[in-house]
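Second attempt. The first submission of Membrane protein insertase YidC had a stray character pasted in from the spreadsheet, which I only caught after the job came back as garbage. Lesson logged: always re-copy from the clean sequence file. Corrected sequence (95 aa) follows.
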Amino acid sequence: MSTFVTAAQFVPLSVGDALQLLLACAAVVGFVVLFKPMLRGLALAAVLVVKPKLTKEQRLQRRQMRDAAMLKRMMNSQKTSPSEAAELQALASRA
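This time the job returned cleanly.
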């Protein structure tokens, strides 16, 4: 006697039940495909409720802070030549 257990022993499905399950899955997939733009918009709205977009001023300020930090890192790196350091200092004075 075999000890292999088949899935049919746990879930006895008739052909009608399998067809009904297949049609239900097809209906769900069709629903998702049909309403994909609306579902995507709802997901985007939910994300914006949790994490709103930054204003232009906030984005500009973040960009300037990131650029200043990058210039500082470049100036503090060990492999900069004197001419590069002077150029970086000139860039940092404008920022």
